[in-house]
Design goal:
Length: 311
Amino acid sequence: MQRYPFLLAPVLLLAACSSQRTSVMLDPALLPLIPSDTISLGGIRFDAFQKTETWKRLAASPQWTERMDEFTKEVGFDPRKDLMEVLWASDGKESLFFVRNRFSQMNIEPLVRREGYQRLAYKGYPLLGDEEYAALFMNASTAVVGRTARLRKIIDNRDAGPGSLSKELLAKAETIPAGAHLWMVATPSALPKFESDRAGTSNMLANLPRLLNGVQYLTVALDMAKGVDAQAVAYCVDDQCAKQWQNTIKGLAGIARITLPEAQRAQMLPLLDSVEVQLNGTTTTTKFKLDLAALEQLQSTFSGAGSRRPN
């Protein structure tokens, strides 16, 4: 039975900000809970995302509706109605997911009845899960999902007083545009390892670990207001590393045109054609855009491919 992964489904699928802000706002209710050894942060601003035309279009698709219905039945709450914000934090070894949700308006009892789940408690704080993974409920609107031992440390640290995040990490978070609905600022050690069984891309991907050694931080920001408006920035240690990143991104885009199956390549062309890579000293910025029509077509293509099963 899957336990922890299904709690993260909305994050893998895919905090309102003042109009005067120029960068994404870290939720003040979540910030004191983030461990001081965090080296990477990311977030999805569901409240703002759900108000966009992109969300409305995606949510109307049969595939999206089916997946959200299954998730709601499995977990006991509907992310289309209840979820406000998810913040991801990693120390390079373990990840925590901080969730702002309307827990007071939902019924979590179905989770308790699941095999292996139980109500736990630590220093007066309720946890729901088992001794491996759990959800820690800080209050009626805030929960933290992760390894149970790590959650208990959060409570211990909270009692000892809030820690402080790296100033450099927070400074890079301040560069994320305020309009970003999905965002991330990460050090390379917290990123997933890249693998490929395609001959055309394996050589490029094989060079990424070496390139990452020269990258101090990566930031990603996706504005989903009318499709996808994406920006990724690599902060490198020197000009040579930045230039290598520029060449790698351009190379991957070029190889994708050759190695993708014909049907998928046709649908990917609007994205590939929009890729821009800008070099500015030790910084490499990659941008791409997809309008709503192209995004819907891309979603339909890959959803259809993923839904086909062998006879």
